[in-house]
């Protein structure tokens, strides 16, 4: 059995590397961002020249700094590196005390490496923006009641802002409205809150940061659809059905499959984003439909569970595509078990969530939707 998949199946939360992705103009968000790391490098280069050694040098340095700003910055080539932001956030926010601004990041779980990467991006923002980041998660992606209790605690604790990747698009709405009523700005990342329910509860003006899940899932499922030229049974492993991102990925995958008349979508079943549950569900699906030729999994964890089942039963002729671009999934692509996956840049979502929270606390008007580019990852991209 290939060691990469075995390791992923047996150790769900391996040691993670801090993977901050270099960005360029081709990978910018629909809401354009300008780089804090670039600004930091400009500040460092000025200090290194010794402009601020004396009062006269200070005045000269300030004049030069203004000149650089007017010209677009020293060494500005029209592109930036690091995690990019739309409007540079200046000095840390004042709280009236010596304590920094406290921003809470509420995620579904840390048993999925996707959210580990999301925290990496948020920690990067914490360092750059001079705030205190409080990270809270549920035990599992299905721990919705636990997420609700976490938000209640944060309201009681009077945090300054909440950035949340909600496990449910509906069940978190009432408690987040309570947070908003307490004067706590809410930033929604990853999984979109239900718009109609939010409107009914009066939860309005909440910025959303994520990818276009319909389009991205379409790309991933098309990796399968483009390879099928004979009648083939296909199944779909869904996430939590109440979650908008799960619904959107199902929609995108079904669209790709519907374009190929040789594909017969025989079943769509939820494995609730979980690796172990996906293993069991995959087994049940093969019992019901022994001729399955392809599987689309709405996240990598479910794909890894499905792949483990296929390996355990010596099924090497079933195509699998997925979503998230975890390191374990990329290894599966290299080993030929997985066709493709989608990089939705979890670290950027975490970073921008915190950055938007700081901007909200400054009273800025924020875009209601910011879509980050989703990138298809296949074998050719990993050579």
Strand order of the largest sheet: 2-1-3-4-5-11
CATH architecture of the largest domain: 3-Layer(aba) Sandwich
Our Rg estimate from Cα atoms comes to 23 Å
What class would the helix/strand composition place it in?
Answer: alpha/beta
Which homologous superfamily in CATH is the superfamily of the largest domain? Response regulator
What would CATH call the class of the largest domain?
Answer: Alpha Beta
Cα distance spanning the termini? 22 Å
Mean pLDDT: 82
The oligomeric state is single chain
- Can you tell me the residue ranges where pLDDT is under 50 for at least 5 consecutive residues? 1-86
Q: What is the element string, with H for helices and E for strands?
A: HHHEHEHEHEHEHEHEHEHEHEHEE
**Tally of alpha and pi helices:** 13
Q: Count all strands and give the number.
A: 12
Shape: elongated
Sheet with the most strands, sense and barrel status: 6 strands, parallel
Q: What is the helix content?
A: 40-55%
How much strand? 15-25%
Number of domains: 3
- Could you say what the CATH topology of the largest domain is called? Rossmann fold
